[in-house]
């Protein structure tokens, strides 16, 4: 074949193969997930997932762990007991691998008539570069806790209490050795841009208190992204004469009731990523073991039961979505095949088999497809002209 004819063939081939690329690469909005069991977890517990697919938390025996899902150490568990202390509950990790947690340094004695375990007295810590740094408390306080860390190393938490109580306290922001008092606002989440939320839906950034979430609904925020979108739970009418807790997405100044998408079910949203995908759980009475929470994914206005997008033969039932990163990986909890879930659950990492990407509308697909084909055919005509001149 001559060079000009090979050029014609290549131009037409490029026109054809450009179609799926310009159409977004795939046509299906729903992604299937692989399911990685990270083991039985400590309850109650806090777990964190970063955008590199690293997970921190505590196993059922209390051991703090780091799990890596990608890179040279993919599939590796690291027991961090020796590094941060065996009695440390890990609560967060950022993309730089900085980890926060709370070392148990004492116990709240039982109140008269209460009996049993009441709570822990803790010291918040930062584990970075192989070193543990204690986060300072406010003067006169006897405990503190860390609940979130962003990509710049900004840490949020609470400080307060007495030698025998972990009640009360003020929220704080800690970064580069400096601690800022947030007053009685208890922070629960921080974005990479430094936007802090918590309490009854307050918003705070760069030393300024911003207009918060609508307070009438009694919102409890649990996560926030860089766009200022907040998720959590709030009190919503359930149609039976009283209110129940529903999952919400606060977006563009509006509270979206995600529970309404699940048949007015009570629930909570716990995680959101930068593209607005939300995970959480809602109560269902149709689970395989009776009434159980179901893990959900919310995206593009639709709520999906995560149990419908994992391998059907896994034997596991996902009860809650805990976090979601920008890769679309989801941290979730679930119960075993035997159904003996009370008091013990496992934690799972769900990884999309197909990486998430926006799904263009059919009209958009056709439009860009015609453009691609037209450009390819134009190039073919140009090359035909050059072939004729060469002949």
How does this structure look, described?
- The two termini are 14 Å apart.
- Mean pLDDT is 81; it is low at 1-31, 112-117, 364-368 and 386-391.
- The protein has 3 domains: 1-26 and 361-391; 28-53 and 218-358, no CATH class; 80-206, no CATH class.
- The chain is mostly beta strands.
- The strands form 7 sheets. A 4-stranded antiparallel sheet has the order 1-28-27-26, with no helix packed on it. A 4-stranded antiparallel sheet has the order 2-3-4-5. A 4-stranded antiparallel sheet has the order 6-7-8-9.
- It has helices at residues 3-22, 81-84, 362-390; strands at residues 33-40, 48-49, 54-58, 64-68, 76-79, 88-93, 99-108, 119-128, 131-134, 143-149, 155-160, 170-175, 178-181, 187-190, 196-198, 202-205, 208-210, 220-224, 230-237, 243-251, 254-257, 267-272, 278-287, 290-299, 302-305, 317-324, 330-335, 346-352.
- It is built from 3 helices and 28 strands.
- β14 and β15 form a beta hairpin.
- The chain is globular and about 50 Å long.
**Mean pLDDT figure:** 81
Radius of gyration: 25 Å
| Low-confidence runs | 1-31, 112-117, 364-368, 386-391
- Regarding quaternary structure, what we see is single chain
- What fraction of the residues are assigned to beta strands by DSSP? 35-45%
What kind of sheet is the major sheet? 4 strands, antiparallel
Strand order of the largest sheet: 1-28-27-26
Compute the number of structural domains: 3
Distance between the terminal alpha carbons, to the nearest Å? 14 Å
Structural class estimated from helices and strands: mainly beta
Number of helices: 3
Helix content: 10-25%
Number of strands: 28
| Coarse morphology | globular
């Amino acid at each position: 074949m001559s060079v000009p004819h090979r050029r014609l063939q290549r131009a037409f081939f490029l026109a054809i193969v450009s179609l799926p690329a310009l159409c977004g690469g795939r046509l299906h909005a729903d992604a299937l997930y692989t399911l990685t069991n990270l083991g039985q977890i400590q309850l109650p517990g806090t777990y964190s997932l970063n955008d590199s697919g690293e997970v921190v938390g505590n196993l059922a025996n209390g051991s703090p762990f780091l799990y890596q899902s990608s890179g040279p150490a993919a599939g590796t568990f690291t027991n961090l007991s020796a590094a941060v202390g065996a009695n440390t509950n890990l609560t967060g990790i950022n993309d730089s691998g900085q980890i926060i947690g709370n070392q148990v340094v004492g116990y709240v004695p039982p109140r008269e008539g209460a009996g049993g375990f009441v709570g822990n007295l803790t010291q918040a810590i930062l584990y970075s570069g192989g070193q543990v740094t204690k986060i300072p408390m406010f003067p006169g306080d006897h405990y503190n806790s860390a609940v979130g860390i962003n990509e710049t190393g900004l840490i949020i938490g609470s400080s307060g209490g007495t030698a025998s109580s972990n009640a009360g306290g003020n929220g704080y922001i800690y970064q580069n050795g400096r601690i800022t008092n947030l007053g009685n606002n208890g922070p629960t989440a921080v974005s990479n841009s430094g936007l802090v939320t918590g309490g009854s839906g307050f918003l705070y950034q760069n030393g300024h208190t911003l207009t918060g979430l609508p307070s009438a609904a009694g919102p409890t925020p649990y996560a926030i992204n860089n766009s200022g979108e907040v998720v959590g739970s709030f009190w919503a009418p359930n149609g039976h004469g009283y209110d129940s807790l529903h999952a919400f997405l606060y977006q563009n100044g509006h509270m979206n009731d995600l529970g309404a998408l699940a048949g007015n079910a009570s629930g909570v949203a716990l995680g959101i990523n930068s593209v607005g995908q939300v995970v959480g759980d809602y109560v269902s009475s149709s689970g395989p073991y009776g009434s159980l929470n179901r893990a959900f994914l919310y995206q593009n206005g639709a709520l999906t039961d995560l149990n419908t997008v994992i391998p059907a033969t896994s034997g596991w039932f996902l009860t809650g979505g805990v976090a979601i990163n920008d890769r679309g990986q989801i941290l979730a909890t679930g119960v075993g095949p035997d159904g003996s879930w009370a008091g013990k659950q496992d934690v799972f990492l769900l990884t999309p088999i197909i990486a998430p990407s926006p799904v263009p509308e059919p009209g958009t697909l056709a439009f860009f497809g015609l453009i691609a084909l037209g450009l390819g055919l134009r190039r073919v005509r140009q090359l035909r002209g050059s072939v004729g001149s060469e002949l």
